[in-house]
Structure formats: structure tokens, C-alpha cells
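Hallway conversation turned thread

IA: we were arguing at lunch whether anyone had actually written out NADP-dependent oxidoreductase end to end. Turns out nobody had. So, for the record, here is the sequence (331 residues) and right after it the C-alpha cells. Reply here if something looks off.
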Amino acid sequence: MINRQWRIAARPLGRAIETSDFDWGEGEVRSPGDGELLVRVDHLGFDPAQKGWMENVADYLGPTEIGDVMRAFAVGEVVESRDPGFAAGDKVTGMFGWQDYATVAARDATKVPDEMLTANLGILGVTGYTAFFGMNKIAKPFPGDTVVITGAAGATGSTVGQIAKMAGCRVIGIAGGERKCRWLVEELGFDHALDYRAANVRREIKPLVPNGIDIIWDNVGGSIFDGLLPRIAMHARVVVCGAISIYSEATLPPGPSNYMQLVFRRAKMEGLIVLDHEAEFPWARERLAGWIREGRMKHAEDVVHGLENAPETLLRLFKGENFGKQVLTLR
């Protein structure tokens, strides 16, 4: 069998990702050895973190090399198994990459039910787990807390907001565009949404948080995040999940100028890497799936078709063009 693949051709350090950072090619499918699986890749998930994986700027995963298949979470079907724990036809998820077929160690694949398959790349995958554990382990919301989320219409931010609402919090989302803001309020039940493209967030957030912000969940970084820090309440919790606004900067900007507010308000700011909680993923999946079945949680997916479109699909994240979790279906 022929295996179409996208491979890393360059490292986009200090600049935006370009389609020329990837090489398209074809190769032979490797048969699985003992303890391995051959997986047909059906759906790919896209995350801002993939840029960092290309650049090797983060050390929570092993490094990538020029010429490697582009790394990505995916959902697929087992074609051939050399491991007693899996059989042909099983649906699995794992880091299978931008290719038609992946030969992987069985320990690197996880069986998933044959339903809501693409949700395993979003709300029932690491995206949803990020929201779940960030709120459960770091933010620790209390009823009546005011929660402000940057990048609120993204797959992670929208899940965070819904968890906060279930916890009895007031939730304010910051997103790009009227459509996204309307969705947050009308569909997901956020109390307010600010369009950073049309509003002065620093000015307009003030009357919405008269008693301060108890929880900031930041996916964006930069000036929007910095402008929220003067509004934190006493003993606020700040969850740093991402900083997509600065990922393509040639020179990283200085850190937040208002960080001393953390001292004045006796607040806590903590970073989050969801893989630290991998042992508890089954618990998170059970809770999130239950909320979906009960109609208490909604999610959106932005689906593109065709493996040949993978590079352009990743670029959509950095242009703010996706609405919900960005997914690509190969066939």
C-alpha cells in the first residue's frame, strides 16, 4: 500500500507557519511487528501547539527532526494487529501524524467507542481534558466566581466556559468576531462576550467585573492578557494554557507588565500541560461524555476534507478562521 505523508521541511521559529514548511511525499506502508498496530488514519486534529512541536521549543514531548512525518493527534481504525489487546476494526486514537497509515506500538494507541469519533480530537480528547483538569486542578471554581476566558470560542476555551457555568460561575468570554461572541452567549450560556476585534477589551471589561476577576483562563497571551491582570480579585487563580497571539513573533515581547497584581491580590498563576494528568484521562472522558449525553455541554467542529489540505488547515488556527475544534477528515 502507498502511504501519502506530509513531512516537516523547516522550523518556523520567529515567524508564521507557511505551507512551504511541509513536504508532500509517498512511501510504502510498514507492516507491524510484534506489539505493533497498523492504523488507517481517518481524522486529524489541529492544535496551536503543533507549531511548537515543529520548532522544538517545548520539552514535554520528544524532539522532531526535519523529514519527520508531521506530528498530530488522530483517530483511525486498526487494519492489522500484532498485539492481543487489539483487533482489526478497532477504533483508536493516538499521535498518528499527517499520513494515510501509521505503524505504531500498541501502547501508543487507545481504543475509543465507535461513536462521536471526531470528538476524540476535541472535547473527548486532549482539548477537553485540558479544560477539565485546568479547571479541576488549578482554577478550582466556586459558585459566584467571575471567570474570564481569552480565546473563548476555541475548542478549549468554550469547554472551560461551560464547566465554569456548571460550577455556578459568571462567565465572560473574549473572542474574535460577532458570530463567535453570539455563539458563546446564545448557545453556550456565557453571561457576556467581548469581540476583541471591535472593542477595547481593557476598557470594556471593567464594568463587567465590579468585584474583580476570580479566574482568568488565558489561551492568547499578549496585551489582552496583560490588560486583565489589573482586574483580578483577591486570591484570584490565573491559568496559563497558551499564548497564540505571540507564537509567530520574531522577538518575544516582554512579560506582562501588570504581574505585580499577583502580589497585591495574593493571586496564583500556574501553567498547564495536560499530559501531566494522563493517568486520569479515562475519568475526564467519562465525565465529559456524560455531560454531552445529558445535553449539558455542547461543542463545535470545523471540518476540512482531504489530506492534501493539511498545511492550509493548520494555518487556519493562526488566522482565527476556525469555528470550534479544527478537524480534517482524510477521505
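OS: looked through it. The mean pLDDT is 96.
IA: good, adding that to the notes. The CA atoms of residues 240 and 271 lie 5 Å apart.
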